[in-house]
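Hey, can you fold this one?
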Amino acid sequence: MIRYLPYVFKNLWRHRARTLLTVSGAAVAIFVFAVVSSLQEGLDQLTASQQADRRLIVFQANRFCPSTSKLPEDYAHQIQKMPGVKDAAPVKVFMNNCRASLDVVVFHGLPADKLRVARDLQLLSGNWADFESRRDGAIVGRAIAARRGLQVGQRFSIAAATVTVVGICSSAVPADENFIFTHLEFLQRIPGLNSVGTATQIEVLLNDDAQLSQVATAIDEKFRAGTVGTNTRPLGVFQLSVLGDLIELIGLLRYLALACVALVLALVGTTTLMAVQDRVREFAVLQTLGFSGPLIFRLVLSESVILSMAGGAAGLLIATTLLKTGNLAIGTEGVLVPFLATTNLIVTGLGVSLIAGLVAGLSPAWTAACAEIVPGLRG
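Sure. Predicted structure:
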């Protein structure tokens, strides 16, 4: 079959305008499919990392947006003394937008001695000493640093928060690369927030033998009669509840991805069928020269697959380049879902293109292979 590839490519190039338009249309469809799938990849990876995490999030009861949750900072010290608790850190969350948005900037303020324990961060530039010594110092995730063009030594402002970037970090959890980490006291003293002595949430790290549900219940019981009631949930449950509406939106976008696959089928199938109808006499001549029906079937099917794969590869290349350089993430209520261009995404996109090309080419290839010689020559 390989020796017939020059013939296949020659036939595709014979109607170059039609071929290029089909490849372009398939590329656009696969591009949209890849972008939608990258958001699902980000959600799946976030969910997987949450399920393996042994952390609890203590939030103010009956509060939703982080800007409305105010827990006494002292709760962290009390929780840390409870059985099964390895560490507890008060976290102040500050953001520029609490609603769903592609341009959410989220600050996480923690005590300097707690940040390196609470989060698995690796500095790519800068150093921890500068962060610990500067009240307005900030460690910036590399995704938001790339998106906002931030560098070490640069001052950065969002609303009333102005920080100095003292380090760029990476993390095994992609979502953490979209956060800006600062000192807890710095965020507490932002003008207008009036939040000195309070935290948005308490992050609780448990011992290996501790039961998440039991410790969560014990924490809520402890503060039930306190000044501020709490709602304690595992990290995964907490973030998935916050992302509820966003998850439904992502679910609806899957239908858009399926529609894109259907578009590839329609484009490639139509183009291949037109090519077969234009070459009725040519196929009859090939049969008189000894080309069998199965061979003609494979030749036509190859044209369909090449069209689909070329469009798919182009769309995936554009999508992965955009996702890698754009470092996009969508967030709501301080929880971010990154768009991830993973190897699995690329393999899935190529697989979809291959299957679409095969399915789209079956009917035209069968038509060409079953054509009779005499009517074809007359045509």
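The chain has two domains: 2-47+246-378, 62-228. Let me know if you want another pass with a different chain boundary.
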